[in-house]
User: Fold this.
Amino acid sequence: MSQQIHIEIRVRNRTAMTYFTNNLTAEEERLRALGPDRVLIAEFAGDRPEIVCLCGSTRFPDAFREATLRETLAGRIVVSIGCNMRTDTEVFGAMSETDLREVKIRLDELHKRKIDLADRVQVLNVGGYVGDSTRSEIEYACSLGKPVSYLEPAAEQGDEVAR
Assistant:
């Protein structure tokens, strides 16, 4: 098992993000080398920045916020969930179970269109959790040949389980 590397992104001498990873991308290596007191928003090369699509359970909204910040500061375009059926009760609270199921199907398909736009997929498998929708998104991304990476190593080893 590889050693986890602690990454801390600091903006104006304050911690903006801290996380652990088993493998650094070249851009993360470059950011780490800049030192702790620089404003760390990565530059990109080429026609456009890399686009990353975040996939995972909406039961982990903090993971989505943290990943969005981390990927944005690394100079990437982030596509992610646009709403949360668990917490956006002003929109979903009065809907029937039938209507909620239909909306969920449509949102799942919309997220696959976001995967179509992405260069790669980042799975936010907090605690190793990968539910049915996320598993479907992973399979879809793989069918398109998109690289898929995981927040936590358990899923990369085939240990993901829906709980």
